[in-house]
Each structure stands twice: as C-alpha cells, then as structure tokens.
Amino acid sequence: MAVSTALKNIHKITIPTPFAVGPVNVYVLTGDKHILVDTGPATKEAEEVLRHGLQQLQLTPEDIHTVVTTHHHPDHVGLVHLFKDAEIIGHEKMQPWLVKDQAFFDQIYAFFRPFFAQNGVPEELVNQMVTTHQAYLTYTEKTSLTRTVREGDRIGDYTVLETPGHAQTHISLLSKDGTLIAGDHLIAHISSNAIIEAPYSSGENRAKTLLQYRDALLKIKDVSCVLPGHGEQIDDPTILIQERIKQQDEKAIMFLDKLGDSELSIFELTKLVYKRLVDKQPDLTFSETLGHVELLEEQGLVEFKKDNEGIIRYKKAKAQN
C-alpha cells in the first residue's frame, strides 16, 4: 500500500475496499496547499491505509487543505468526514449524497419503482436493489461540500471537466501538461458502467447515461495521461478511448442480435444476455442493457411501444426487419 509518485507532485495511495471493483486509488497533490482527490470507503482498514499513506508523505489529515470528490460512490467519498478543516469540493449534485438527504433518497426510490416496473423488472428484484443501495450508503459518513464546481472552474493548478456517465456527479481534473485525474471515467482493465440514475430535480429528464458517457469520453480523447480511480496509469488514453467506443458499438449490435424478431422488455433482454448474473447484479446488468438499447435507439435501429399492461417493449426498427 506504499505511496507511488508517478508524475511530479502527484502521489497515489491505493486503498482497499469491500467492493467487487477492488482497491481504489486516491491522489495527493502536494504543494503550498495540499489537495486530496477522493478518499476511499468508510471502513477501518481503508482509514488506516489512508492515514499511513499520508504519513509516508509526512502529512496528516489536518495538513490537507482541499478534498476533491470525483463522484459520489462510497469507495471514493467514504472518508471525506476525516478532513474536518479542509475545503470539500465537488459537483453541485454531490451535496445530497454527502449530507445523506433522506428526502432525496426517497425521491430516487419513488422514481425507480414505477420505472423498473414499466421495464419489466419484478418487484422482488426492485426491493433487492433498494436494499443493496441502502447498504452501500453505510460506507459513507455524513458530511457536506463547502464549494461546488462546474466545467472550466479551477482548483489550484487544475481545470475541472464535467465527465458524467458513470455518475451524474462525476468530475475530472486536468493539469496544464495534459494529465487527467479521472476518477472512474476511464479505467484500463475494466469498462466503467454507465449507471442509470434518477433525475435530481423535478422537471429534469433521466439522463441516457451511456450516450452521455460516450460524449464525455470524447471530451478527454486528447489528454496525454490518465490517472484512474482503479488500476494502473493510462499512458495512451486516446487508443483506449477508441477501443471503448468500438466495444460499445459491438456490444450494442450483440444486443440487437439477441433481440432478433422478438418484442422484449429491457428486463427480458437483460435476462437473455446475462442469465444468472441478473440475480446477483440486477442494477448493473439492467444499466448495461438499457444503455446499449438506448444507443441502438439513437442510431435508429430499435423502436419501442407500451403493451396493454404498460410494459415498454423494444423491437428492431422497421428498416431492420
């Protein structure tokens, strides 16, 4: 768990998590005012490793001037509360997650229950997803932003890029030399899941997250180096981004082939593709299916209608039949 210095004053600490994704990388940007990007989950082991990593840099939590949160997932923000004297920075949509706004969570569940139902998801699986989500939140402690940022804002020597798709709260930091501290926006060994989210306010439409993610990937295609939230440094991100876009296109065609001549709900198509994995990871497999079907819809390859029971069913567009 040693700190490794890859670029100038940027120091990586790799922190264990209890999640399937494995360890998370947080970054200490040393200077006149030390900045920490992400923190790890709220577990005793993670806190010990984070404190040890800071100690190797001759720092304590009290020495950190600014904590930047790349997005709201607990493996990235669970220990923000340790930095009581620091400026806490994130996208404006971070705030309800950090303060654990119960009304906001109730709004999410109220959106998703009918949404999943009309996409064919059984009620017991919806209940399972809600329970999992609530358990996931136990890996964070209640805290609050002190400053919100948007596209183009500056944090020290870094420029903020809004990079939504994996999360609606997601930001990345771009240095003058083209180094991007990217959270989960781009990871070498796995493809980031474009996770569906409920709208954050009334009147806001649900984001089509895979389409959003593809646009945000293209936004960073010319950066020189990516420091990801998981795994190793990416020294040729342009090639990896091209591969990711190609993989998404190929996966969408796979879903189209699986759809065949049928009219299927998203959940039926999810079961057809992911089989038993659906029971273990219903939220992630559903997000993957919906995202790629929405990509097909954007390309004019599928269309949908509601059946007599109110279930949305997709089929190949007429030009494809």
UniProtKB/TrEMBL annotation:
Entry keywords, A to Z: Hydrolase
Family annotation (Gene3D superfamilies): Ribonuclease Z/Hydroxyacylglutathione hydrolase-like (3.60.15.10)
GO molecular-function terms, A-Z: hydrolase activity
InterPro entries: Metallo-B-lactamas (IPR001279), RibonucZ/Hydroxyglut_hydro (IPR036866), Sec-metab_biosynth-thioest (IPR050662)
Keyword Cell membrane: no
SMART domains found in the cross-reference section: Lactamase_B
Domain named Metallo-beta-lactamase: residues: 23-230
Pfam families the UniProt entry points to: Lactamase_B
PANTHER family according to UniProt: ENDORIBONUCLEASE LACTB2 (PTHR23131), METALLO-BETA-LACTAMASE SUPERFAMILY POTEIN (PTHR23131:SF4)
Protein name: MBL fold metallo-hydrolase
Organism (species): Paenalkalicoccus suaedae
